[in-house]
Specification:
By secondary structure, the chain is of the alpha+beta class. It has helices spanning 3-28, 87-103, 136-141, and strands spanning 32-44, 50-61, 64-73, 111-119, 126-134.
């Protein structure tokens, strides 16, 4: 087996372990888990290929519908787990959440976008929940086009 395949397999396992830890953490905090790994088509790229979005955990925190992204790292020496939730990922989560709400006729309930960072350590994993990690309003204010000075 190639080193790249082994590395990818390890990353997938770390991600799944982190999602399981986050799932149990949210249940202990009183969240009602609706589904995990929700996938839906959210559009097409420039070549016409279908783009599929995924939300790691969909849950209710009391009456608020939460779309939760889980990011896991084996250590935080390189970067925080949540540094991977960049603008592109936020856009994908927002589009997938819109599809979810449309499918299940949930246009008006309160909702938010949360993120959980999991750092796997030898003795005990560190878990941090960030409620309202980003919002659609904040997201709309960000610039997606680079200034002309880049070109």
């Amino acid at each position: 087996m190639s080193q790249e395949f082994l590395s990818l397999k390890t990353e997938i396992n770390i991600g799944k372990i982190g999602e399981e830890i986050a799932y149990k953490y949210l249940q202990a905090k009183g969240y009602r888990i609706v589904c995990t790994n929700f996938k839906a088509p959210i559009g097409r790229n420039r070549r016409g290929a279908e783009i599929t979005g995924e939300i790691d955990i969909v849950a209710y925190d009391e009456n608020t519908l939460c779309f939760i992204e889980v990011k896991t790292r084996s250590s935080d020496s390189f970067a925080s787990p949540l540094s991977a939730v960049d603008l592109r990922k936020q856009r994908q989560i927002i589009r997938t959440a819109r599809v979810y709400r449309r499918i299940f006729y949930l246009q008006n309930p309160p909702f938010r976008y949360d993120a959980i960072g999991v750092i796997l350590q030898a003795d005990k994993p560190q878990i941090k929940l960030f409620k309202n990690f980003f919002t659609e309003e904040k997201f709309k204010q960000k610039r997606w086009i680079f200034p002309e000075t880049y070109f």
